Amino acid sequence: MKRDNRVLRQGANVTAIVLALLTVFPLYWMVLSALKPKGEITAAHPRPWTFAPTLENFRNALGVSGFGRYFLNSLLVAGVVVVVSAAIAFLAAVALSRFRFRFRTTILIMFLVAQMVPVEALTIPLFFLVRDIGTVAPGFGLSSLGALMLVNLAFSLPFAVWMLRGFVAAVPESLEEAARIDGASRFTILWRILFPLVAPGLAATSVFSFITAWNDFVFAKTLILDTDHQTLPAALMVFFKPDENDWGGIMAASTLMTVPVLIFFVLVQRHMVSGLGGAVKD
Amino acid sequence: MPATTVTARADRGDSSPVRPAGGVPAKGRRRSGPLARIPVPLWLLLPAALVLIPLFGYPLYQLGLLSVLKFGQPQASGGVPTEFVGLSNYTDVLGDSQFWSVLGQTLAFAAFCVVATLVVGAVCAVLLTRVGKWPRLLLMFGALGAWAAPAMTGSTVWMFLLDTNSGLVNEILGTQGHNWMYDKWSAFAMVAVVVVWHSFPFVMITLYAGIQAIPDSVLEAARLDGAGTATIFRKVMLPMLRPLLVIVVIQSIIWDFKVFTQIYVMTGGGGIAGQNLVLNVYAYQKAFVAENYSLGAAIGVLMTLILLAVTAVYIRSLRRSGEEL
């Protein structure tokens, strides 16, 4: 019995490691290819290593005019979207999981339905809407980061609320009950009791908001008409050529675009997995 | 239509206080929390409504409007007045045999991706609870990487791996010169691999977090009562994971039905002669390439309705089995 368990555990360990390597390999290949000198990338026999790593591809990528600027624009938009969407979604999730009221289910289903709308199809009406907003508030009109923030906020919210609801529901209500008996105000309960307990869920949810804003290409392409306010995905398009792809450049640019998301994930990951477990256990 | 309901709800909320949980015949087993004493949860929903009604509801309404107009490039540039054409855009779409074949392959492709994502994700989640610290961290890190990779960069990396001449896959398999994106089903399969690679981490990490959140005391109690591993899994863990399972299933359906970037980038906008089109890309092509915005809008509306129907069936079956939303 004991030995069986050990064999099983070793088998599981090996399986996990193999799966991990398979999963991570494309990313390794991306970084490796970004570091390879030009000749090696298109060589007949690609090798999974390189003896002559070079930053040439990265220099080319960064050499694209204003790349740093696009990068900062992307960070700014994604950052604002994450923070605002977390705050709004938290309040809405509390309303939807801690109260029973008329139309509660209707509203819930609407948040679900909102996610089903193909975003690409909404680009046309949004273009005209943002253009009109711009005549009143230029900070949120066409070619403004404000417009991108608003639009990405709107499209990340339904999922954020929907997902956060589960995390709020997972917090035992006995804790709030206890706080109330101790005389805590509603605001205190919301802010001092519920918020910290839902924080891991918020972290997990913010990942999605970040990705929505960071990956967005369609809106940036449609709503941003000048190059100063463009974001990263649009800048990456420079490397895509119909006839002859500059794989080294594409891989370097892809690497630069993936790294911030990866950092964000690693920072948040601990909260996503262990935080929930730790906080809720009785 | 969601927007109008939100508005209706907001109007009502101002005048009549929403009854706290105690007043409503309790639908669930859940007791009302102390927060339920706040008369109106409206103010909690207000910020969300302020963002969503103008920026989501209104464009959605306009999308619906667009789908019953004749609206192409001449109308967009203002040269020709728009014209109400009723449902003729819809009859055009539904009468096009290409729509039906695209719909069929969209459903098949999405179904395959959903099942594969769920199976891989669930197996990995269970695996994570059974392995040592380092394998766990490694798998977690790999999954986070795949998850973090933006859809576009993920697609380009895989395209590079599968490249006809300088791709690693052909090198390893000794099939230099083989074009993986040429055959229709091979192309779909490759895109499916990328979609699953991108989305199984969500399932894995959500379910793993859920498993971790099950209190040890509960499992301990079950074990003391003489329950075996299989029984614990079926009778204790599965019911407790149910809410999370609902979320991952619905999300997978929604995401995989709407796959856009991977198809668009990897098959070059829908494959040779449109053989790899899915509805989302099809709508985009109709709207922006053929510049028939109203036809694209009609397809967008139809897509939403189809997704709605699929999810409604799923939620209904959940409710029938006694699950509360």
What does this structure look like?
Chain A: It holds the Pfam family BPD_transp_1. Chain A: This is Sugar ABC transporter permease. Chain A: InterPro entries: BP-dep_ABC_trans_perm, MetI-like, MetI-like_sf. Chain A: It is found in: Cell membrane. Chain A: Belongs to the binding-protein-dependent transport system permease family. Chain B: Keywords: Cell membrane, Membrane, Sugar transport, Transmembrane, Transmembrane helix, Transport. The complex is a heterodimer of chains A (282) and B (325). Chain A is an all-alpha fold and 282 residues long. Chain A folds into two domains: 54 residues; 220 residues, MetI-like (MetI-like fold, Orthogonal Bundle). Chain A is 76% helix and 0% strand. In chain A, helix 1 packs antiparallel against helix 12, helix 4 runs parallel beside helix 7 and helix 8 runs antiparallel to helix 9. The longest helix of chain A is centred in the first third of the chain and has 34 residues. The two termini of chain A are 32 Å apart. The relative contact order of chain A is 0.13. The C terminus of chain A is likely disordered. Chain B is an all-alpha fold and 325 residues long. Among the domains of chain B are: 166 residues, MetI-like fold; 47 residues, no CATH class. In chain B, strands 1-2 form a two-stranded antiparallel ribbon. In chain B, helix 10 crosses helix 11 and helix 13 packs antiparallel against helix 14. The longest helix of chain B has 34 residues. Chain B starts with a helix and ends in a 5-residue tail after the last helix. Classes of the chains: A mainly alpha (282), B mainly alpha (325). The interface between A and B is large, with 113 and 113 residues.
